[in-house]
Amino acid sequence: MNFIKTIIGSNPDFQKAIPTNVPYLEIAEFFYDTIQGEGINLGQPAAFLRVQHCTQNCWWCDTKEVWRSGNPYTFDELFDMMDDTDLVKKLKSGQHLILTGGSPMKQQKGLTLFLEAFKKRYGFRPYTEIENECTLMPTPEFTSLIDVWNNSPKLKHSGNPDSLRYRPDIIRHLSGLNNAWFKFVVAQHEDWDEIEASFLQPGLIKREQIILMPLGGTREGLHRIRETVVEIAIRETVRYSSREHIELWDKKTGV
Ligand code: SF4
User: Fold this and answer.
1) Of 63, 52, 65, 45, whose CA–CA distance to 4 is shortest?
2) Measured in angstroms, how far is the CA atom of residue 36 from the centroid of ligand 1?
């Protein structure tokens, strides 16, 4: 897909030094002129800023090899790289900026400063979505800069310890924010029972915020389970989302 443009490509071998006394972000990859592949804004033209590091270690994570590598970049370095492209023009014309990872919440302080510095430099704030594993509480400052919360709490089948992956207080708080959605990765019929028992029955989230997605990091994997997930979504009157980037590009990253 040669229309997708890269600001920072995934590069496991390149190791930059951590900058001193200036804010920076640890970034795994940064690309634009692609689409949001899943969730409530599926199909929306978008730029992806993928940060390093995560709070989880889902066995089926399809970006682990990417977010485990990366480098620190100062804001000046990032702005210089962006100015060599038409990214800012695209963001101004409505392309969404999607903060993803790994865990953007692990770098919410740096991302808050970066989004504020962006506005100061370019005179507008990009429409910003975040992909969130729901284990860290957002600050009011960061919350005010996010337009869409693509929350994705991890179920038991992710393989993460319960105490690390399931934070009811944080999930309840996120549910009360504007434009908050909860995408659940579903692998089997029983996953709905867990969503109901751990999220709906305790009143942590609302049914209308739920989006079900099939588990699968490959096209073949998605196709194995997607009919089951559609069936659950129809039975329970919740949304279904495909993972369109995988349908389009299969296992490829940076798209
Ligand atoms: S939370 Fe997301 S990025 Fe982190 S390991 Fe799980 S699937 Fe991967």
Assistant:
1) 45
2) 17
